[in-house]
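Run log, item B.
One chain of 271 residues. Sequence copied directly from the ordering sheet:
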Amino acid sequence: MQTKNLDYKIIIEIKDKNIEIDQLDIAFNIRKNCKLEPDIAYIKIWNLDDTTFNYISESNSDLHLYIKSGNSDKTLLFCGKPDLGTIRRVNRFYPRKSPDICTIIKITDSADAYINSYINKDYIDSVSSTRIINDCIDEMGLTVNGINNITAEKMYDSYKAKGKPHTILKSICDELDIPLFIQNGAVRSFSGFDINNLTAITEFSTGNASKPLLQNQSEVSFYSEFVPYLLPADIIKCSFEEFFGYYRVSEITFDGNNYNKMCVTKITIGL
């Protein structure tokens, strides 16, 4: 299911140069999850000028992808660093019939935290899982957004944390079933929910979504209209013939463009 005739403007911003790209044909494919796995976006820009292309290809600047509807403020859809080794230009005939040069950019949310950070701490004395988690987050250079609700904790007689911080972080979180994830440069978490206290819940049914498909024993996916405000770990209401109730979004994918003003959203929920 696709949303047609979108009243959205797509804006790409190069943060440290204060450059906005909003007058060219742009397409995006964005995948976000609520696991300790990188969120990834692929952006295509048609007929990007040489100066801007060279700057993106040679710098380490963050790219921010926004959408803007009417006179409202722009909304951040994705941010991260481009994978410099994969940026390329190709000749494409789509969306127009004349040959165009398409720039393809892969962007990773919090790329430096996953790729360039390193931890080397030898906790000789007793240490808590909370301290190790906080040390890993510090080494990754990330901010923290609402992880005070973590109650699971373990004391280790000693612990050697050496290597990629996100690997150690994931190991501890998997062991203690702590739901941490990284999004827009911040570490976030979620906890259980009470349906009696839920507000502003988005509802999906056959009226605005496709038939749900079982992905595995614990997850179901369906396609819907464009819902740019929806995030991993959000709670949604499902009113399908196959199942009914409140579920948490485990993964979301946006696939859209501004030249035929269409977008499809793929939502995966945990059962």
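Observations after the first pass:
- The mean pLDDT is 88.
- The radius of gyration is 21 Å.
Flagged for discussion on Thursday.
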